Amino acid sequence: MHALKLTQIGNSVGVVLPKEVLARLKLEKGDTVFVTETPEGIALTPYDPSLAEQLELGREFMREFRDTFHALAK
Fold first, then answer.
1. pTM over 0.90
2. What is the 3-state secondary structure (H, E, C) of 10-69?
3. Residues 6+ apart with CB under 8 A from 10
4. Which of 9, 18, 24, 30 could link 14 by a cystine bridge, Cβ 3.0 to 4.6 Å?
């Protein structure tokens, strides 16, 4: 667990992430992070949640038409 302080950055307020957190998230200066609200609180992730939803819908579609895709692959 890391306790982070809010700091003034120009006209905005920001949080400085420790090197350990950046390494764990595989983030570097200039990368984009996404903030989403979850039932447990706020989540910070390098992955676009809307892309994850689209991938899951694609997986469901492929499962539903598995036999068709298998026949087409022949």
1. no
2. CCEEEECCCHHHHHHHCCCCCCCCEEEEECCEEEEECCCHHHHHHHHHHHHHHHHCHHHH
3. none
4. 9
